[in-house]
Each structure stands twice: as C-alpha cells, then as structure tokens.
What does this fold into?
Amino acid sequence: MAVVNADGIVDMHDDGRRQKWASVTKIATALTILDACQEGVVSLDDELGPPGSTLAHLLAHASGMGPDEREAMSPLEKRRIYSNAGYETAAGHLAQATGSPFTEELNDRLIELLDMSDTRLEGSPAHGMVGTIGDLATMARELLAPSLVLNQVVELASTLAYPGLDGVLPGYGRQSPNDWGLGCEIRDHKSPHWTAPENSPATFGHFGQAGSFCWVDRDAGLACVSLSDTPFGQWAIDAWPPLSSKVLAAYR
It folds into this structure.
C-alpha cells in the first residue's frame, strides 16, 4: 500500500514485486486515449461501438455495450454497463489511428512520461497492467496534482460524464446513480462502496479483481493505492473502507 499527497509518496510498503493491476489498468488506458484526443489523433466524438456510440461513451461505460461482448445490451445512454469490451474497442481505435500497437502508445504517453519503469501492459488494455506499488503511486500522485500529464486529460478522466445513469458497480451491486468520468469511477454518495464514508463525494479512481485499488481525494489532498496477491472478495469489501478511513485520519 502507498499513501500520496501533492508532494509525492508519504508512506509506502514496497516489497519490489510486480503484481497485477487488473481493472485499475483502465485508468492508464483512459489517460493514454485522452492524451491522444488532446493531440487530435482521435476524437471523443469518433463513432465507435454500438450504433450512435462514440469513443466518449465507451470510456464512460455509457454505450450500452456488454461487459465482455462487443454487442449492445442496452440502448445508448440508458444504463451504465461496466464493459471490458468497450475499453478494448477504444484502445484498438487508437492503435488503428496511429498505426502503432496500443502498448507503444501507452508506453510513450504515460509509462515513459512518468518513469514507471517497472510497469508494463501484458494483456488486455482493460485489465492487463502488471507493475509495482511504487509505479501505481506515481500515477496516483499525477492524478492528484498533474504536472506531466495534461490537466485537461485528468479532468476528463475524473469529471462526471453522462449524469443520471444507473448501473451495477461490480462487487457492490446496483447504484443509482452509478457515476463515472471518462476513465475513473466517481464516488458520489454510493453505498455500499469500496472507499471510506469520509471520502469526498468527488473522490475518483478504480479497483480491480486482483485486489488492487487507487483512489484520489482532492478535497483531502490525498491518494491511496494498493496491490494484492489475493483476488478481490469479501475480505476487500470488509477491509478497504476502514483502511481508507484510517488513511484519511492519519494523513489528512
């Protein structure tokens, strides 16, 4: 685990192991794609996915595309359906536009930029990152106080897109609404939730099925990240909110 403020890492346990980030990968993928949008390489308005859907819809899980199949399960902008397939489609779109594998775009636009030298994408752009807690903390610090990644990119990733959509937050059930930005989940007033009750409603981030998480609470001036060798389960549901409460109490 690591705790980060605007100046950098303030506390960290790092055994040097590279571990799976699982769906926390989606943050890195979204930042990469949004950076390319700022350059004009691709556009959030590019038509992609189900009829009427755009790149922005895919990044916000608002296209209606199913979790793992590239077919619509719901009309556009009617439900927030968490979709790995949507992120894979979005990453493939960038690769097609540039003529370079998505891994190269990710390396150039994020990993090398932030000197995350112990982290690589080793599979799906939806859940395939493998890296160290130190590198994840580096990315979290950039989300908290952008200095190398464009401010506009972080704002797009963390600002509510397509408000009012209900949906299922994996592991936590139906949420009404189920708020997301173009890459990050937004806490709002969701209950149950994997962050702490004391976290700001504007807290954003992601968790993964490998027992990983990353949250950023700008109101508290803190971010917290964790990697695990134990898959997500009831242990995480029970442990993560009290852990986050203790982090806020100790470091805010």
Residues 234-251 form the longest helix (18 residues). The chain has a mean pLDDT of 97. DSSP finds seven helices and eleven strands in the chain.
